[in-house]
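Q: How would the structure tokens look for this protein?
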Amino acid sequence: QVQLVESGGGLVQPGGSLRLSCAASGITFSNYVMGWYRQAPGKQRELVASRTSGGITNTSGSVKGRFTISRDNAKNTVYLQMNSLKPEDTAVYYCNARRSLVPSQNYWGQGTQVTVSS
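A: Here is the predicted structure in token form.
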């Protein structure tokens, strides 16, 4: 059974930082592209950043320079370091595990709320 368990969300003031974590189980972690997506109220879910096991990253332009994705293959965990947070970063953040070329192997976490507000 595949599980992706996110943690680290919360309320932060503009300009602050948070680090999200996502612990994966039930998959061979190194075979998966790990990513973070977010969905704000009334908006579509969008990619924030992803990272392959080999270190290739893809980061949304709206967060580039502020957010950094990393992964620890030994711990089956992916992280999202979020700095200089803005109110427009407020959303539910979802962890994703996707196996390239195997569309059926695409898994989601339950989401963690990030609220940026003074």
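The longest strand covers residues 18-25.

The mean pLDDT is 96.

Upvote if useful.
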